[in-house]
Design a protein that fits this description.
Blueprint: E1 4-9, H1 13-20, E2 29-31, E3 39-46, H2 49-60, E4 67-77, E5 84-91, H3 93-108, E6 121-127, H4 132-141, E7 150-152, E8 154-160, E9 169-176
Helix pairs in contact: 2-3
């Protein structure tokens, strides 16, 4: 078995800096290391070498367009029992198409379909026992992000060792996204 694999895109340093600046002392919050910030596209899981090779081959033969994305705001996963504080990502239809392409690659490699709805995000903190009202107040206290959109022009196949739960992540391969013939990005976020 290889380490658990997932496809993702990484964030520009300015976005990482803004996100890491949000960290405060909060009971029950285990903040992510900014070096591990990323946006997962498709989690593949613990796979053997043949499946990993099929995933890499699929990613190598896929040339989706580069696109722009931006931080939309903060939220949490888990409803009444929050388990993660996240920064939501807004992107155009290119990211949805990229996710669908990675889902097809996963299924072609023999993996089961993903059952959860895709919600692009950056995990800021894992929550264990943090009070929902404290988290809600924190989210409300953060002003709306004014960061500019950023260009996503490559994806990375990352691995994590079992039991690490939040990194460190190791880049296994990098794949460039396509540009039009003039070298200009093909898409923008509205």
């Amino acid at each position: 078995m290889l380490p658990r694999l997932f496809s993702a895109f990484q964030l520009p340093e300015a976005v990482e800096d803004w996100l890491s600046g949000l960290e405060i002392e909060m009971h029950g919050a285990r903040w992510a290391n900014p070096d591990n910030f990323h946006v997962t596209i498709r989690f593949f899981g613990d796979v053997d070498g043949h499946v990993a090779d099929d995933i890499v081959a699929g990613l190598e033969s896929s040339y989706p367009p580069a696109f722009e994305a931006r931080i939309k705001g903060l939220s949490c996963f888990g409803g009444d029992r929050p388990r993660a504080l996240v920064a939501e990502i807004e992107a155009g239809p290119e990211l949805a198409a990229l996710y669908r392409a990675h889902e097809r690659i996963a299924q072609s490699a023999g993996l089961p379909p993903e059952r959860r709805k895709y919600a692009p995000h950056v995990t800021l903190a894992r929550l264990d026992g943090a009070r929902p009202d404290t988290i809600a107040r924190f989210i409300q206290s953060v002003s709306e992000p004014t960061l500019p959109a950023f260009v996503v022009n490559e994806i990375v196949l990352l691995s994590a060792r079992p039991g690490t739960g939040g990194g460190p992540y190791v880049p296994e391969a990098t794949f460039n996204l396509a540009r039009d013939t003039a070298g200009i990005l093909k898409s923008t976020v509205a």
